[in-house]
UniProtKB/TrEMBL annotation, chain A:
It is found in: Cell inner membrane; Cell membrane. The keyword Nucleotidyltransferase does not apply. Belongs to the binding-protein-dependent transport system permease family. HisMQ subfamily. It comes from Mesorhizobium neociceri. InterPro entries: AA_ABC_transptr_permease_3TM, ArtM/GltK/GlnP/TcyL/YhdX-like, MetI-like, MetI-like_sf. PROSITE patterns: ABC_TM1. This is Amino acid ABC transporter permease. Pfam families: BPD_transp_1.
From TrEMBL, chain B:
This is Amino acid ABC transporter ATP-binding protein. GO terms for molecular function: ABC-type amino acid transporter activity; ATP binding; ATP hydrolysis activity. Residues 2-236 form the ABC transporter domain. Pfam families: ABC_tran (PF00005). Its main location: membrane. It is a peripheral membrane protein. It is found in: Cell membrane. One of its GO terms (cellular component) is plasma membrane. Keywords: Amino-acid transport, ATP-binding, Cell membrane, Membrane, Nucleotide-binding, Transport. SUPFAM superfamilies: P-loop containing nucleoside triphosphate hydrolases. The lineage of its organism: Bacteria, Pseudomonadati, Pseudomonadota, Alphaproteobacteria, Hyphomicrobiales. Belongs to the ABC transporter superfamily. InterPro entries: AAA+_ATPase (IPR003593), ABC_ATPase_HisP-typ (IPR030679), ABC_transporter-like_ATP-bd (IPR003439), ABC_transporter-like_CS (IPR017871), MetN_ABC_transporter-like (IPR050086), P-loop_NTPase (IPR027417).
Amino acid sequence: MFFGASLSWNDILFMLSGAVTTIAITLASVAIGTSLGVLFGLARAGSPWWISWPIGGILDIFRSIPLLIQLVLFNSFNSMFRLHWPTYLVACLCLGIYAAAFCTEIVRSGVTAVPTTTRRAARSLGLTWFQEVVSITLPMATRIVFPSWIGLALGVMKDTALVLWIGIVELLRSSQIVTTRVQEPLLVLSIAGLIYFLMSFPIARLGAQLEKRWRIQ
Amino acid sequence: MIEIDNVHKHFGTLHVLKGVSLNVKKGEVLSMIGGSGSGKSTMLMCINGLEGIQKGSISVDGIDVHAKATDLNKLRRRIGIVFQQWNAFPHLTVLENVMLAPRKVLGKSKQEAEAIAVQQLGHVGLGEKLRAFPSRLSGGQQQRMAIARALAMSPDYMLFDEVTSALDPQLVGEVLDTLRMLSKEGMTMIVVTHEMRFAREVSDRVAFFCQGQIHELGTPEQIFDSPQKPETADFLRSVL
Ligand SMILES: Nc1ncnc2c1ncn2[C@@H]1O[C@H](COP(=O)(O)OP(=O)(O)OP(=O)(O)O)[C@@H](O)[C@H]1O
Ligand SMILES: [Mg+2]
């Protein structure tokens, strides 16, 4: 027995396993969100309006409806239409698409910030559109929007707390369970907060490190 | 040989090139002069297919640039172009800037590409700056890097679009020296420039652009000493 009367190591371990779930959902959602975001962002930045606008319009819907509503609706569709998708998949897809909606605008703003003349210079050397995007536009855009992207990733991590509403036991839910058992809400929530901080801190540090390295260039 | 035949180019409703015809032979240095907005830059962009045309034709060594079947990425290997803005790739070192296209486009190995880049950068006097990032270079150095980057593809033709216009006056000389060197080596070049003395010195022929047409074409002596058209004379008076 440590900390107060009844909080045990097992409770802490239980919360840590919730934290692992939080990390897993965060990684999957950020990966989905970033891949889709890069695709849609490039399309938004470089396509005629009849491609760009519909993409923007649909993503606006995902950006403006609260994530909780999307999660609950998506989860209900899942059972209504008997898709039998695992709840984790529903959570990752929902968060992933939500992240993609924000990431698309981040990528679009980064891509449009790369000077057209620089892109033309690359094409004039004989690079194909794809080679140019991979070697010039995306690296340049990444350096421009990286702080926003770090912000998005940290935001997604905190938003994972909402998936407890569809029955997933992540860090916040595991803390609630522990709280109802040991009746020490302040202590347990402080520990949960600390774990969230310890998970975010490396991401923020990594971001700062990369930014510093890029500034030298 | 670059053969430009009756080329018309529109940007929307703006008629920018109105029937330009011109041949540039192997080994020739042709300067394009003319007022702002007369279509010189647009002409260069059309030659390597960065801009499309609406009428006429442009062919490079017999290949029709604007034909549907033409592989532009392949054609562009043979036509280097350097712009007024230096267009360095800021996230790559000087060496990597020059190595990029030989590696990606020509499929050279890292060693081969590096050897080419080192040689070309030495050629333009940047042998000491290989590992620097472009942001650490002066404008003149960045512009010479852009020239080396184009030369690394061993192009048959080089197009220069006002490559000294964005430079501080004291840096213009070093870039013009690089162009002089290329012309002495027999490179076929089209040089859009506002540096009239330079145009006179290096060019075999000078084309005067006015309102989307070549108004007058001739040797530097003809154009600068005895222009036949009043517009040419007016333009020269305004810039000299
Ligand atoms: N991408 C574009 N879209 C629309 N109009 C354009 C575009 N590029 C050039 N123009 C217009 O075409 C005309 C010719 O431009 P161009 O840049 O070829 O002139 P220029 O002779 O190079 O002039 P300068 O000496 O100022 O560089 C100008 O009126 C310009 O505004
Ligand atoms: Mg111009």
